[in-house]
Amino acid sequence: MTFKNIATSFLLLCFTSLFSITTLYAQEAKVARSNTEELFVGVAGNEPFVFAQNSSTKGIAIEIWEELAKKKSWDYTYKTFDTVEDALYALNKGELDVVVGPISITSQRLEYMNFSQPFYNSSLAIVSRVDELTLWQKVKPLFSIKLLFAVGIFLIILAIVGALLWLAERKRSPEQFPSKIADGIGTGMWLAIVTMSTTGYGDKAPITLWGRIIAGSWMIISIIFATSMVAGIASTLTLSSLGTSTYSNVEQLAGRKVATISASPSEAFLKEYKAKITGVDNINEAMSKLVNKEVDAVVYDRPQLLYYMKNHKDEELFIAKAEYYKQGYGFAFPVDSKLIYDVNRTLLELAEHQEVLNIVHHYLDKDE
């Protein structure tokens, strides 16, 4: 082996050793940064989970994180972002150790980051006004397509019964049932109506066997038919008179004007149910349109809607019990973060001691 070859091998060995030492030092530094040095915490989201920097109120996510970090004696520095996506982008670039806020835990995001267990379970909800119905809104159900269709069928049946009575009686009782078709069927329908209503004026009565069979059969049928019809109309009127303008499920929003945050998951959700979407920039704008009767309802994340309602109790609003697109909110970490175990364990401890629940109740109504 020549001197040149020996020198080359020596230099290659030195370079390899230097590279290994550098890599090992970087890994050790990363571990040390995750456990002992100051953490860089990204903050993003909206109320009630994250408040503006100049606010005296922190928010649900911030308070939970600070309780958690206090228990672990972690030092950290906040870095605020305008949107959650901006914060997650910085996380993926290695600029942050964790992102704190209402971060939705989704299967798509799990491909390039990791999450703590959920500290809050969210969903989409519907908020509408509590208004008294107008007179037209109360009687409107009586003019529904289904009811008009039922009335049409009833008139057809009535005409058939009237025609049968006329055919059975026209020869034996021409003074009661005229020979003219229109007059005769009209008289038969009158007799059918009197029979059904049990008024019994006595001005018309069948005298033939077949006429009496038809009339007797109609009496039995009409009792069942009339009572069902009257009960249906009565219940419709009762419910409409007691009703309000609130919406309890998303199916009722078809064709209605609904406000939601533009480009949010709730916008795509409403498109599936054929609602007329009004896009807004924030919850306050959406609620303003609802109160001013520019829209019929607002659909967005339940906790944000609850927080607004808690702080605007003078506005008569109703939030439906129905929940859609349920998802958990958690803290986001790099895929190889060493913090996740400690965070999850401490979150469980906070939950077991009701500390998480107390923080949530501070911002949202206890009933929810």
From TrEMBL:
InterPro entries: Ionotropic_Glu_rcpt (IPR015683), Iontro_rcpt_C (IPR001320), Solute-binding_3/MltF_N (IPR001638). Residues 38-367 form the Solute-binding protein family 3/N-terminal domain. Gene3D superfamilies: 1.10.287.70, Periplasmic binding protein-like II. Its main location: membrane. It is found in: Membrane. Residues 1-26 form the signal peptide. The chain crosses the membrane at residues 147-168, 180-201, 213-239. The keyword 4Fe-4S does not apply. The keyword Ion transport applies. It is a multi-pass membrane protein. Residues 38-366 form the Ionotropic glutamate receptor C-terminal domain. It holds the Pfam family Lig_chan. It comes from the Bacteria. Keywords: Glycoprotein, Ion channel, Ion transport, Membrane, Receptor, Signal, Transmembrane, Transmembrane helix, Transport. This is Transporter substrate-binding domain-containing protein.
